[in-house]
Amino acid sequence: MPNTPHPVRGPRLIHSRALPLRVWLVIVLVAVSSIGLLGSSLAVHYAMRGVLMEQVDEELRSSAVGWTQNPEIYQSGVVRPPTQFSVVAITPEGLASFLYDDGSRPDFTELEVGAPPQTVGSLPGSASNDQWRAMGAVNESGVIIIVGKNLSSQRQLLGGLSAVQLTISAIALVVMALIGAGFIRRALQPLREVERTAQAISAGEIHRRVPYWSPDTEVGQLSMSINIMLARLQESLESAKNSAHIARDKEAQMRRFVGDASHELRTPLTSVRGYVELYRSGATKDVDLVMDRIDAESGRMKLLVEDLLALTRAEGSRLEKTSVDLLELTLSAAASGRAAWPGRGIEVVNDTSGIPIVNGDPDRLHQVITNLINNGLKHGGEEASVTIRLHRDPAEPGRELIDVIDDGGGMSEETASHIFERFYRADSSRFRGTGGSGLGLAIVRSLVEMHDGTVKVASKEGEGTTFRISLPQKMGPRPSLPDGGEAQATGDHAVTGEPEQEEADASRRG
């Protein structure tokens, strides 16, 4: 059976024809440099032209009061004017004497006598169509003297200068392109290495790791976060060797994470390339706009790196557990939220009969509450407000409950079922265009589970969203106030933790 060729798929064909990002960056560098060199060359050209014209004008002024006043050059025919000069003398009676060079002759018909030097052309039928610089003056005898100088030598000089500038600019552009290509290749090498490593790990080489770079750079932080995450996931795989099912699940989880991280990293890079192609296609000539967009996309990549690092720390760090007063903790988180979101409503309501105390890390729990406040205010809409409610439920004995409630736009059941997944973003306006990385709620779930707690979400479109955190109770003495926390009044529900105030709050709510 004869072999039939496989058709080439469209996307792969387009990808094979597309130039790499580093090539477009070199093109932009050369284009911007060309504009700069062109501008400097034009400035030098016109400055040199001005200097040459000023020299010619000075010669004409000197000639108008000098040798052109000698009558012998008009009578004997022996004395000739200097090379490249032509002279016309017109007596008061209208008699004209002409002294021309052997080449072209200037056209003095439009020349204004007594005016500054002007540039004129040659008479029709002249040997060449040269340009002349000429001026006219009247001497004491009433004779009109018109003198002109041929500008062919100046034109040749400017032409030679332009050729030199063109040669130097071409050499400079080639050198800048080569040097720029080297620097760009070197700058993009870490990203290519990250992509190659991620692809290898996604293909099953789970022993591969991203090379180490300085943690002071975004790529260095990303590589460190990915390596830590991969090491822990690999340890989990090795510890589950006796269960093939668990091993397959962990490997799939690791591949999804690496694939998602690689995709999220490639997204801002694709945007950078898009703006470069936009500039190349001529759709915009605003270099500053293109560079601003590239800077904005690099900022989004930095946000992704920081959230990846935060998730890695949340899943890998040890908790410094102590007795935590949830009332004081939520008041502190609400105060931080008001500072970050001035003018937005953030309220704390304590519906417990006593002091809600749990055993946990106050800094990590503060981060959980802060993340949920920011999530409600950011995605709920510009008019959304947040209420933090502390309460207990007989259906969950021995548990302290924290509800973070926003009155924003809410979300669908489908969205709510995936909200705690890493890198998940819904298609609704609640999550699009806000600049998030899709890791904030994943960090919340990880920290809550480390405290032996659970976090759930209930939402309805158009009515708002409620996140409920359930933590084990701990009966004990009242803990000290965490750093930065203050008992503050929150609107109509002033929460202080005192029994009398709680009774007053309860009566108002009733």
From TrEMBL:
Domain Histidine kinase positions: 260-475
Pfam families tied to this protein: HAMP (PF00672), HATPase_c (PF02518), HisKA (PF00512)
Keywords of this entry: Kinase, Membrane, Phosphoprotein, Transferase, Transmembrane, Transmembrane helix, Two-component regulatory system
Catalytic activity: ATP + protein L-histidine = ADP + protein N-phospho-L-histidine
SUPFAM superfamilies in the record: ATPase domain of HSP90 chaperone/DNA topoisomerase II/histidine kinase, HAMP domain-like, Homodimeric domain of signal transducing histidine kinase
Chain ranges of the HAMP domain: 185-238
Catalytic activity, EC: 2.7.13.3
Superkingdom in the source lineage: Bacteria
Region (Disordered) location: 464-510
GO MF terms held by the record: protein histidine kinase activity
Bilayer-spanning residue ranges: 21-48, 163-184
InterPro entries: HAMP_dom, HATPase_C_sf, HATPase_dom, His_kinase_dom, HisK_dim/P_dom, HisK_dim/P_sf, Sig_transdc_His_kin-like_C, TCS_sensor_his_kinase
Localization: Cell membrane
SMART domains documented for this protein: HAMP, HATPase_c, HisKA
Main location: membrane
Cited PANTHER family: SENSOR HISTIDINE KINASE TRCS, SENSOR HISTIDINE KINASE YKOH
Name of the protein in question: histidine kinase
Organism: Corynebacterium guangdongense
Phylogenetic classification of the source organism: Bacteria, Bacillati, Actinomycetota, Actinomycetes, Mycobacteriales
